[in-house]
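Quick note —
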Amino acid sequence: MVSAALDADQEVIGFRRSLSTPGFQVMDADNSAREWRVVSHLFYVVVFKTWRGPISMGGRMQHGAPGFVLCQRPNELTVGRPEGGLPGSFKVLEFTPELLDEWLAEQPGTRLRPEWSAAIQALSAQASARFSHFFEVFEPAASPLELQSELLQLSEVMVHGLIAGMPAHAVPAAGPSIRGTARMRECLNEEGFDINLETLARKVGLSRYQALRSFKRRYGLPPHAYQMAVRLGQARRLLSEGSPPVDVAQRCGFADQSHFNRHFKRAFGVTPLHYARGERRSSGVYQVNPDSNPERILSRSDR
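Predicted structure written out below.
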């Protein structure tokens, strides 16, 4: 994944893309007060965070605001002006027509041409939460399996929520046998940490959507979340055996030490270093010193 940023008068523009998700990228626009004039060869969906203002599309005037998305087709001019010249923030999902066709083709019984239901559409609370989650986790250090899984789950929300003629929710397909889902779990334990969703699905003869749904239905987690649990479990074992955290991060497939620290602390409440040392951490901002008085009050919650 690569990114670029432009800072001017507090405006920050960034792009995120990955080799694991070809034909797709995210643009992050923060504190933008400029007029936007865009003609793109891609489909795109603009998710308004704080930005609001009039938008001209195909000769029609629309209005963008938080809680809504702008859906655009390739090669159409869009002109957006921030209301009152005030800066605002938004996110943009950009993807090729081929990728959208691929998402549609994997939905059961779908034979539609990709047409948006409307240029400006309101987001449900559930869809808004899915978009926010995606923007948070689509990061350079994420594994191919996580990036592909998160994008596929988001694509389902877009296809069924924003495309004309689609039902509001996906129609569940018949799941595979118990052996099929068990085989996916075996692959996640045996194939190493670089396995992606397409490879995992192919090994058990399923579509990517079927693989995601059936695995989560059987084990309660999507494959990439299960894989992360496996990696963190292995990391704990190696740390307990005395391996340095920097070596554990590499052996368990984390992009770098920061990536490892973030996920380990999110799961267990302590950093890998504190876990390796057997140190206790409070829920506040204080750390137990092994040489300190054990009767010492350690955190605000203990007072």
